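User: My collaborator sent over this chain with a note saying "see what the structure looks like." That's all I know about it. Can you take a look?
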Amino acid sequence: MHNNLIILAGGASSRMKKPATSKTINSDETTQANNRSKSLISLDNTGRPVLDYLLYNAKKAGYKNIYIVINEKGVLFKEFYGSKEKNNDFNGLNISFPIQYIPKDRVKPFGTADALLQAVEQFPELNKQFYTVCNSDNLYSTEALNLLRITEHKNAFISYNRDTLEFPLERISKFALTKLNENNELIRILEKPSETEVPNFYDRDKKLRVSMNIFKFNGKEFYPFLKNCPIHPIRNEKEMQTSLLNYITKTNNKVVGIPLSEHVPDLSSKDDIATVKAYLKKHYTTLDWSSI
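Assistant: Without extra context I'll predict from the sequence alone. Here is the result:
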């Protein structure tokens, strides 16, 4: 077991800044979406960020140390979760803020592998421990978070059943598929699969599996692959997925896919706001931190 959760929240939120294609978003939500990081948008009547729900699930799953990776302009995170760089108490969680600095020759952050690298270099104790890492704009369940916290596998990820994701088919078809062997060990990740490639990715249970970017890593073993992550030739970023694939191809270490069938709310664009609001209203009456 481990108690460390790293939440990547330093991205530019570029898709969220684009105009909505529907009229299901109000003016206040539009203003927030245009000016805040995605996970700081308020979607209930409390005025609190949607990130509260992920932190709530994390605490229920048993995590204690939370590292929220923010960018250099992420002051608002500290207004909600603590003004200090590290060891802020938020409802019993220990919150720290690694910063993903943008290189001088770039205008946007350098990708997810860079974000995680900067986090573990600013908090080097993580390179001697295990940790879970996930996105800030996905609402992962308590079960998913707990499965990665308690697994005996040194490296793992949640391998979601694609059929249980409640997104439009066009959107789901663009999700990266994971290729697993008979032991549920990761072999390959395929981005934006074509229809002809899909049949090659069914697992031993005849299911298509996707990664929603929630992983557990052995900090010591994974660090060199973050440090030496090559730049993606098309997106011009250092991506955690690249580090992961290099990790399994250049070592004998395994990354095991833990199967799970459930939906993962995703707040990527303005058009997601109404859907996530409805999900929260249906599944959460209130966040009772005192009961955890």
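A starting point for your reply to your collaborator: The longest helix spans residues 112-122.
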